[in-house]
Amino acid sequence: KDSKIISIRCKDSLGIEKIKHLVDLVTKTNDGFSIRVYTIGAPRYRIEVVGNDPKDVSEKLTNVLSILVQEGKKEGLEVGESK
Question: Which of 9, 25, 55, 66 lies 20 to 30 angstroms, CA to CA, from 31?
Answer without folding.
Answer: 9
